[in-house]
Amino acid sequence: MNRVDVRVDSRVELLSIVQMFTSWRDSVIVKKDYKYKRDALEWFKPYRNHRVIELCEYLRDFQCMCMPTGFMVHVTEPPELKFIEKLDLNTIYSFTWFISSKLGDWFNKYFEKSKAIKLYGINRSKYALLPGLKARAEEELMLLGEFMAKRVLNEFIEYLRNFVYKSNFIEFFDMHRSFYEALIEKSKLKHSVPKIISYLKDFFKKYEEHVSVILCPLYGSFAFGHGFNDKTFVFIGPRRIVNDFPIFEGVEDLILNELSRIVGIYCARYFDEIMEYSYLFEYLGDYVKSTHGVWIQALNVHLASAIEAIIKHHYMGIPKEEIASYLDQKERMGFIFVKDFYKLLDEYVKKKDEYNSFEEFFPRIIKLLKTLAESTSKDLERKEDLRRG
Question: At 67, is the pLDDT very low, low, confident or very high (cuts 50, 70, 90)?
């Protein structure tokens, strides 16, 4: 039986309150003014000049709104805020990559590399395969990025802990427990999320993750996920505010998309084969490249979007016309291969009894990548010939 819990998390509420007093409010905080938001602003306004507010503003430079929120589940609940596990590279990999990519601006110019994203996912055991000086410089860059990320995050948690004590955050959170409980009850997600997981379990033939759906009443209407050990966290904002109350009904499609990204587990297992086609990243739309940053992540979202469409059609009975419209929308956003993956996965779901697991089918995806790479190259050659011609 899959484990599912739906809750308001004190760690995420703490972070979102801090974010309200920074430029993060323009990208993650709910726009509509309502009672709980006003309560938070009034309670914490005297601490708007606290050092943690300034540090949180610095984190905006990472240009990825989900990273700080995902990071919060790596510490215990306030007031302690102790790291659950050693703060190592795996825990803060995204922070390390973003810092390294910024440092990599100089690195790229010096070595005439085309993109800093090539730093992403390099296994240190493979450095010996790279040319000497470049390999050493690249390794030093990642190590420096890791060191800086640890310094930033350790300091952030230290001041966040101080903010908890000075602002009496625990008292504020306890005063609103009945509000949080009402959010959970009225969302009805305790009943609908297990259904979604049962569909994914049937599709993948395995889904052992512990799923936590974190309701974020101060966030806008979006969702993002974060994996940690055998747990998957989905952080989700309300669809709308009605009579001073956040409504979380109808967010199942957002949760389905995030949970579908468990396909990333298989992408990681076939990392080397997938990275052979990393140059396909350059052909994706600007939105995709700016939002997902690297080929492996963009591929993961391509596949998750296709899986979401498969689940909606084959398990939830959504008509083909709506699925086609959804895929068209994704393609316009720059996920140019999403229809190719949908077609392949549609074949899989119709014949999945022929496979012992989804992983057994995954080499077909690698084969499709090869086909897409070949057809894309030929298409570019034709365009270039026409341009010269």
Answer: confident
pTM: 0.78
Cis, peptide link before residue 79, omega less than 30° from 0: yes
- Six-digit token pair at 170? 């625990």
What pLDDT is attached to residue 225?
82
| C-alpha–C-alpha distance, residues 37 and 41, integer Å | 6
Q: Which two tokens stand for residue 94?
A: 């995204």
Q: Please tell me the predicted confidence (pLDDT) of residue 139.
A: 62
Sequence-distant (6+) residues with CB within 8 A of 158 are: none
The confidence score (pLDDT) of residue 264 equals: 81
**What long-range pairs does 167-171 form, CB within 8 A, spacing at least 24?**
167/43, 167/44, 167/46, 167/47, 167/50, 169/14, 169/17, 169/78, 169/79, 170/78, 170/79
* pLDDT at position 125 over 60: no
Pairing of strands 231-236, 210-215: parallel
**Four-residue CA torsion sign, 135, 137, 142, 144:** positive
Alpha-carbon gap, residue 193 to 205, rounded angstroms:
18
